[in-house]
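Quick one: examine this chain and its backbone structure tokens and tell me how the chain folds. Here goes:
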Amino acid sequence: MKRRKGYYASKLKRAVHMLFYRRHKKPGVKGWELRKVLGTDYPKVLKILDHYLKALDLQVKTIFEEEKTVERPTIEQLDKARFYITLRGELTPKEAKMIGWRIDDLAGLAVTIAYIISKKGKVPRKEVEELLRDKLPGWKVSLNIDRYIRYGYLTQDENDQLYLDWRTHAEIDQKTFIDMLLSK
């Protein structure tokens, strides 16, 4: 039993190093990278790590390339997925203030994400700019959209279409977000 504990302890340590320290342009780690370093039982290692992170209000989040949740993913689907460490709960207003975002910037991001979701994941940048000009000072609109892109919440293609990017998928439960908006 002790040998098994030590076996998983060293794998947990390597998993933490891979997930917490950014090595690529995008944070997180692909499943195939975890399999290469941790072995084929990496999903079990991540499950154990997630249990330990629960006490810190953190979680191991899995984002699939297809951008949809998979009930019982196969090892091939997990190998293609990206794994992140994110908050398990919600930020209090005081904590949100400490991360360096003004409340109007967060509101602009929320409006932008909700609008893109309502348009089935793709919307021209001009439409978002017009929408935000009704809520924010005109000079801030373009700066905020560029900031959302730079921070990974949105991405923009060569036709000036905006899409949700990796950080939105990793940090925001879209169903809960929309349900919360509709309840207000």
The mean pLDDT is 86. The domain at 94-183 is CATH 1.10.10.10 (Arc Repressor Mutant, subunit A). Strands lie at 29-30, 58-63, 82-87, 123-124, 154-156, 161-164.
